[in-house]
Specification:
Layout lengths: L2 E6 L20 H16 L7 E9 L7 H14 L1 E12 L6 H9 L4 E7 L3 H7 L5 H13 L5 E7 L6 H12 L5 E6 L7 H7 L8 H17 L2 E5 L2 E4 L5 H7 L4 E4 L4 E4 L2 E5 L3 H9 L5 E6 L2 H14 L3 E2 H8 L3 H4 L1 H9 L3 E4 L2 E4 L1 H5 L1 H12 L4
The protein binds iron/sulfur cluster (SF4).
């Protein structure tokens, strides 16, 4: 079932590694909220019915900067044009430096039923390095406050392989985090995205990335620790306790439809991928003129769809070859026989019963394995 993504582009401070679109100048938040409402209304004119959606995700940026009253206005508009399923998963991303119990209670009353809290680390020095606005204590307190406000589905983000990090450091963060029993943990390897201050520091030699072996050791430690603690690794970076997988992300990964609103938001509807302008002024100008703030769109080719299927399938629960044969008229194993045998011999994939999945070792090298398989199909699709 489709989902909706809303991008709220304001943050108190930029974290050095972040390449999501956000700004720290808050003077336009009210104007943004009004434009967002107008954008939703404009988009709804293209709809001939009220689509039923089963997930709603407020990301950013820092949507937990929103007051419940502001959130309510946006929700009211959404509800005019979309039907929310009875069991809708409604996530709001929270920065621990912006949390108050009364605000969380307000969100809860509005139907938010899943908080995604950016913990990132529980070591003061690492948080400082990442330029986060909160302390470890505030990060843990955020989980507690979420529980007190009545949330029984709390996801937490952790970043690992911060330069200089050792297994003992991630062990410290994970052990302390696990005491709070989050329902879901997303554990991301720190990436050095072009254009971020972190990337520039690396280029100028101020910061050095961890060696691949250290990365691999830490990733393995994270996977083992979370799996041993009862979490299911249902995607390379995502771990769910007691079945609390993120429905919204599963929909992305399964190639489902998602509507998107707000600056820089990406959507996928009727086989067309589209993305909104990042530039706030451009976004405001277009919406004021009653034009959708879409910067670009593309119809995915058969090959792009297959590549996405391979990438997302391998990152999650594997690829069903029969399904691929039916949908794309391509025998992926026959086309890739030599490569598949090689990857299986290297213990990077398991291949059985028309189903290919990455092994633990394969998860570590997922990008490499996926690009090799995709390169092989280029001659046939
Ligand atoms: S709080 Fe989140 S969105 Fe904002 S800069 Fe930091 S990582 Fe990026």
């Amino acid at each position: 079932m489709p989902g909706i993504y809303i991008h709220f582009p304001f943050c108190i401070k930029k974290c050095c590694y972040c390449d999501f679109f956000s700004i720290t100048d808050m003077k336009n938040t009210e104007k943004f909220n009004n434009s967002l409402i107008r954008e939703i209304r404009l988009y709804s004119e293209k709809l001939d019915s009220k689509p039923l959606v089963s997930s709603l995700f407020f990301g950013g940026g820092t949507p937990s900067l929103m007051k419940p009253e502001e959130l309510e206005l946006i929700l009211n508009e959404l509800k005019k044009h979309f039907q929310f399923s009875d069991d809708i998963e409604f996530t709001l991303e929270c920065n621990p430096g912006t949390i108050e119990k009364s605000k969380l209670e307000g969100y809860k009353q509005l139907g938010v039923n899943r908080l995604s809290i950016g913990i990132q680390s529980l070591i003061p020095k690492e948080l400082e390095f990442l330029e986060r606005i909160h302390s470890p204590e505030e990060a843990l307190k955020a989980i507690e406050t979420g529980r007190e406000a009545g949330f029984d589905n709390i996801s937490t983000d952790i970043i690992f392989s911060i330069p200089g990090q050792k297994v003992k450091d991630i062990r410290y963060s994970l052990e302390n985090l696990l005491k709070y029993k989050p329902n879901h943990i997303s554990a991301y390897n720190l990436t050095f995205e072009k254009g971020t201050p972190l990337y520039n520091s690396m280029q100028s030699g101020k910061v050095r990335r961890n060696d691949d072996e250290v990365d691999a050791e830490i990733f393995e430690y994270v996977s083992d620790t979370l799996t041993d603690a009862g979490y299911e690794q249902y995607e390379v970076s995502n771990f769910a306790f007691d079945g609390k997988k993120c429905r919204h992300n599963l929909n992305y990964w399964n190639g489902g439809t998602y509507f998107a609103f707000g600056t820089s938001a990406h959507g996928y509807v009727n086989g067309i991928r589209y993305w909104n302008h990042k530039n706030l002024k451009k976004y405001f100008d277009l919406v004021e003129k009653d034009l959708l703030p879409i910067e670009g769109s593309e119809v995915l080719t058969k090959r792009q769809i297959l590549e996405e299927k391979i990438m997302l399938g391998l990152r999650c629960e594997g690829l069903n070859m029969e399904e691929i044969k039916k949908e794309f008229q391509i025998d992926l194993i026959a086309v890739n026989q030599e490569l598949i045998n090689h990857l299986a011999n290297e213990k990077l994939i398991e291949n059985g019963n028309q189903h290919i999945r990455l092994t633990r070792k394969g998860y570590l090298l997922s990008d490499e394995v996926i690009s090799k398989i995709c390169a092989e199909i280029s001659s046939v699709v």
